[in-house]
């Protein structure tokens, strides 16, 4: 069942580019005010996010969306997904209740390749934890694994090898677009290693 909570680590052979983003909030008018997004209305926001996605993510690429994807109804959300390049995966956010009600439909129509509450991937030997919410410790954090999250809209600063990749977070890019694995790796090189547990002792 590809939409269930999974703690199974799996490795990705990097034949394609990999991207990450969070908190798209398609169709959410109030997010423009709450997060001071530079759009005049929700239609402009939706179209700009779609355009930026497709400029960044190519048809053969992979993109992980780390929650709060859409505030629209199922039909409108699917229409947007059909316009997005790449193989798209979803990590549930607290506002993805509409998708939670019918994940089979999104998987069956190949709009999302997978839908999970949490994921753990490995690319070129690098472990990456994917979750909507930021954590202080995470799987293999004491060994240098990355932790990518959203939810906080830039208000929760990076801690160790973790960073908010949401559209309203500006830690990696000020642009409203997914960030690449290469950009994440470059950012993490300058992040201090924070060890807060005793797993190696």
What would you note in describing this structure?
There is one protein chain. By secondary structure, the chain is of the alpha/beta class. The protein contains 6 helices and 10 strands; from the N terminus they run ββααβαβααββββββα. The chain has one domain: Metallo-dependent phosphatases (Purple Acid Phosphatase, chain A, domain 2, 4-Layer Sandwich), CATH 3.60.21.10. Strand 3, helix 3 and strand 4 form a beta-alpha-beta unit. The N terminus is likely disordered.
Distance between the termini: 37 Å
Share of helix, binned: 10-25%
CATH topology: Purple Acid Phosphatase, chain A, domain 2
Described by the principal axes of the CA atoms, the overall outline is globular
By CATH's scheme, which homologous superfamily applies? Metallo-dependent phosphatases
Tell me, rounded to a whole number, the average pLDDT: 92
Give me the side-by-side strand order of the main sheet: 1-6-7-8-9
Number of self-contained structural domains: 1
CATH architecture designation: 4-Layer Sandwich
- Structural class estimated from helices and strands: alpha/beta
**Main beta-sheet strand count, sense and barrel state:** 5 strands, mixed
Q: What fraction strand?
A: 15-25%
Low-confidence stretches: 1-6
Order of helices and strands: EEHHEHEHHEEEEEEH
Per CATH, the class reads: Alpha Beta
Rg, nearest Å = 16 Å
Count of helical stretches: 6
**Number of DSSP E strands:** 10
């Amino acid at each position: 069942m590809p939409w269930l909570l999974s703690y199974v680590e799996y490795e990705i052979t990097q034949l394609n580019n990999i991207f990450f983003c969070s908190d798209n909030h398609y169709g959410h008018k109030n997010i423009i005010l709450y997060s001071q997004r530079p759009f005049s209305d929700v239609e402009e926001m939706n179209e700009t996010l779609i355009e930026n996605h497709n400029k960044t993510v190519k048809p053969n690429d992979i993109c992980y969306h780390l929650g709060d994807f859409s505030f629209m109804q199922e039909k409108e959300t699917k229409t947007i997904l059909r316009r997005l390049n790449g193989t798209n995966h979803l990590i549930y956010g607290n506002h993805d209740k509409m998708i939670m009600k019918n994940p089979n439909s999104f998987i069956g129509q190949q709009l999302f390749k997978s839908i999970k509450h949490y994921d753990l991937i490995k690319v070129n030997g690098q472990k990456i934890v994917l979750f909507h919410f930021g954590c202080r410790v995470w799987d293999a954090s004491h060994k240098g694994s990355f932790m990518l999250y959203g939810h906080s809209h830039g208000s929760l600063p990076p801690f160790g090898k973790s960073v908010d990749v949401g559209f309203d977070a500006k830690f990696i890019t000020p642009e409203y677009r997914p960030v690449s694995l290469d950009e994440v790796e470059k950012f993490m090189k300058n992040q201090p290693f924070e060890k807060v547990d005793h797993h190696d002792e």
